[in-house]
Design goal:
25 helices; about 50% helix; 8-stranded mixed β-sheet; about 800 residues; 11-stranded mixed β-sheet; alpha+beta
Length: about 800
């Protein structure tokens, strides 16, 4: 231990004696350690940190996957049967989902209510911090209303009052007893924002008689020692029974899904998170290669000192330890600076965090991240310090000031090749993501987003429980908005483009008269989306009508049955034929017979499956003036999306929209935005990935250029005498520059070739994250290699020019 303290004191003395070397090395390492630490902080919750549930690896999401419903699900009747007969789980629970609800006390507020079974909290191992969970008797249709508050709502709405348990509040206009308060770190397994938990209150006697019944999300806690694969195998008999009960066309497309809760929450983020973390690690490795080259260069000036220490008795192991301790001290200093940089980066990311990436806004440099930074610094010091420390002092070092080492030169060249290799991979990845982002932002939407303000309103279940109340509100709102000065058009819809449609049906359910229906062996034929819109929807969004006409007021009369197809659906239903006037039989809701609709128009394809998605088949129905409108037979019919086209300032239009809603019901919150901003939100995640990869690529490029500059500069210093002899024998300055650059370019070229090969390997992994660009795009790979070569050769040319200015007489007297 005494030797370690001696080595630490000696290391600090040596670093103080070489301030320029110390500053350059510390800053180089700070970039790599800081970038990696910041990225670890951002992706920790996604990749490594345990979920906020005890024994979280035992928790899974269970259900059947079908094209018509997002994610795995069960019908409530199936869930009840599975709950009684499943084998692999100690707990089995369900939820009917999260939806808006209203606290209608003195100060009404809209909150998010999650309806869950009484076994939900026990399944996830969660205990309320105040009060208790609701019982099975309270989880029945006619039981008194009860609720559990989220910690944030308890603090904000009730001031953290511990006497809140037992109080009665008005939830959706009904008296509801507060049973307890959830922990601060509680999160719903789907990561949906949740303010209140209420019983889902399935009516088992009715559900068991209704095979298709309501849809539930199902979660289970596996028995200790049970794997996901084993659980899935044990559920196969229940799944086969589910398939046999399904209509024949659906049987081919159904599959069983049992997946960990972590995968449920982060499945679409994990690959991107790994990519960003590995990119930061690549920057760190480039920085370590630079630091190793700096240490090797410094070793050339300390050869005499090391030989003396060896001559007076210092063993090779002792010298190795002393030099390795010095490298670790250097890395720890870089780690301190890097942690400060990471703190600034994480703070900036938390402010600018896209809403689509889970937990990004919560990232912070906490104790866990600090420990990672310390370990990373130690690892970096060992990584770049081990090879230089292995050099063995020789007796020759006692009689000459410096000696050239072929081994040391090969090591520097190997570090240079490694830097170039990783820099090319980083550059290629960044260019691919930038190109993908550009294509995503310039994809044709099929709509015009300029001068459009959007709003979204959800009516309370208690006050607007029936179709009559909802219809009256929507029609009054539409009329009020049309009367606002400066408004050129108003449209209502059940969902906003370019997001996915709110509702869909299997293609097999859309029956065109004169066309044979799909056979059971053909499956369901995919999914068809549909929207319920007012007549001005197409003019407000500037959606082209390719054939026929748009909806008019006559189509809105009760009993009207008109439909407009998008181009994709028209081509599929009536290839090469005129669809106008043709009859379609469309589903009208559960328990209602299909109705005959007349095709009155064909609209151009609009990007309604999100940016970058393939335009799928879709049809539009008009919102009628009567309560017979099919929209009121579907869930979430109390929600409305509003589109207002106006040339006046968006802020003014948004306020007019809020005022119009307030005149009808002052308790209703309004989410207002411009359509352009809504579209921009869809590219936040790819924009962040492209920006971070670009930053890492630039850092890697600059560090590589600095490393090449250092290697060539050292080579010039070591070959000063040789260069002087060459110039004394007639070599021109140009030939000397050419020689030095050529020798460096051989190693740079090897690194570039290795980088292209590495990019081709990485392409298999990142291809699914790109849009409109092949991961093996030759032009992008060539651009990355050429850009790196240009910067690298510049880094070699600058010190090579200095070699050409060597005075032959001075060089010949060198040494």
């Amino acid at each position: 231990m005494e030797n370690i303290f001696q080595d630490l004191r000696y290391a600090f003395r040596q670093l103080r004696k070489s301030p320029a070397f110390t500053v350059v090395a510390v800053l180089t390492l700070a970039l790599g350690i800081g970038a990696t630490t910041a990225m670890f902080s951002l992706v920790d919750r996604i990749l490594f940190r345990s979920l906020p549930y005890p024994h979280d690896k035992e928790l899974v999401s269970v259900g059947v996957v079908a094209p018509i419903i997002d994610g795995e699900f069960l019908f409530a009747s199936n869930y009840l049967g599975w709950r009684e007969n499943q084998a692999p789980f100690v707990f089995f629970t369900s939820s009917t989902g999260v939806s808006d609800c209203d606290l209608t006390d003195e100060h009404p507020v809209r909150v998010a209510c999650a309806a869950v079974a009484s076994t939900f909290l026990p399944t996830f191992g969660i205990q309320p911090v105040l009060g208790r969970n609701f019982t099975r008797e309270e989880d029945r249709p006619n039981a008194p209303k009860v609720a559990l508050l989220a910690y944030g709502l308890w603090q904000d709405r009730f001031g953290g009052d511990r006497n809140v348990v037992g109080r009665t509040i008005s939830l959706e206009g009904q008296p509801t007893e507060i049973l307890g308060v959830l922990p601060r770190d509680f999160e719903f397994p789907t990561l949906a924002h949740t303010s209140v938990l209420v019983p889902e209150a399935l009516d088992e006697s009715i559900v068991q008689r209704n095979v298709m019944g309501p849809v539930v999300r199902v979660f289970g806690r596996m028995k200790p020692g049970t794997s996901v694969e084993q659980a899935e195998a044990q559920l196969q008999p229940l799944f086969r029974s589910f398939v046999e009960s399904a209509p024949p066309p659906f049987r081919k497309v159904l599959r069983l899904a049992v997946r960990p809760i972590r995968d449920l929450q982060f499945h679409d983020s994990r690959r991107g998170a790994w990519l960003l973390l590995l990119s930061a690690v690549a920057v760190l490795l480039i920085a370590c290669a630079n630091a190793a080259n700096l240490v090797l260069a410094r070793s050339a000036g300390r050869q005499h000192e090391l030989a003396v220490r060896a001559a007076i008795g210092a063993g090779r192991g002792r010298l190795f330890q002393q030099r390795l301790v010095e490298s670790v001290v250097l890395a720890l200093l870089g780690g301190v600076a890097g942690t400060a940089l990471a703190h600034a980066l994480v703070h900036a990311f938390a402010i600018l965090a896209p809403t689509g990436i889970p937990h990004l806004s919560e990232a912070t440099v906490d104790g866990r991240v600090l420990l990672f930074s310390i370990l990373l610094s130690f690892a970096s010091g060992i990584l770049f310090g081990t090879v230089p420390a292995l050099e063995k002092p020789t007796a020759q070092m006692l009689v000459v000031k410096t000696t050239s080492s072929a081994r040391r030169g090969r090591l520097r060249q190997l570090f240079l090749v490694t830097q170039v290799w990783m820099a090319v991979v980083l550059l290629a990845s960044a260019l691919l993501f930038v190109r993908s982002l550009i294509k995503l932002q310039t994809v044709s939407l099929g709509i015009n987003t300029e001068n459009i303000v959007t709003g979204q309103v959800t009516l309370g279940q208690a006050k607007y429980s029936g179709a009559k109340e909802r219809l009256a509100f929507f029609e009054h709102l539409e009329q009020k908005l049309k009367e606002v000065p400066g408004v050129r058009g108003v449209a209502l819809s059940d969902s906003l483009p370019p997001g996915a449609t709110a509702r869909s049906v299997p293609f097999i359910a859309v029956q065109a008269e004169g066309r044979p229906p799909l056979g059971p062996e053909q499956g369901i034929g995919g999914v068809v989306g549909w929207r319920s819109v007012t007549p001005d929807y197409f003019s407000v969004l500037n959606i082209r009508l390719l054939r026929g006409r748009a909806f008019d007021d006559a189509d809105r009369n009760p009993g009207g049955y008109s439909v407009i197809l998008n181009e994709a659906l028209a081509q599929r239903l009536f290839p090469g034929e005129d669809p106008l006037g043709r009859i379609l039989r469309l589903p009208q809701g559960e328990g209602i017979a299909d109705a005959a609709f007349t095709v009155i128009g064909v609209a151009g394809n609009a990007q309604n499956q999100g940016l970058g998605g393939r335009v799928g088949p879709e049809y539009y129905l008009v919102r009628r003036h009567g309560v017979d409108d099919p929209i009121f037979r579907y869930p979430e019919s109390q929600h409305i999306s509003i589109l207002v086209r106006s040339a006046i300032a968006p802020q003014t239009v948004a306020q007019e929209l809020r005022d119009a809603v307030a005149t009808l019901d002052s308790t209703l919150p309004v989410e207002a935005n411009t359509l352009g901003q809504s579209v921009a939100l869809l590219v936040q995640r790819p924009r962040l990935s492209a920006a971070l990869l670009s930053v890492f690529a630039i850092m890697g490029l600059l560090l590589t250029a600095v490393g090449i500059y250092g290697v060539v500069s050292l080579s010039v210093n070591q070959r000063t005498q040789e260069i002087g002899v060459r110039m004394a024998l007639g070599a021109t300055p140009k030939s000397v520059v050419r020689m030095m650059v050529w020798q460096a370019s051989l190693w740079i070229g090897m690194g570039a070739v290795a980088g292209i090969l590495g990019s081709l390997v990485a392409a298999r992994w990142i291809g699914s994250l790109l849009f409109g660009v092949r991961a093996t795009d030759p032009a992008t790979l060539a651009e990355a290699a050429m850009l790196l070569l240009a910067v690298a050769l510049l880094g070699a040319w600058v010190p090579a020019r200095r070699a050409a200015k060597v005075d032959p007489m001075v060089a010949l007297r060198y040494e």
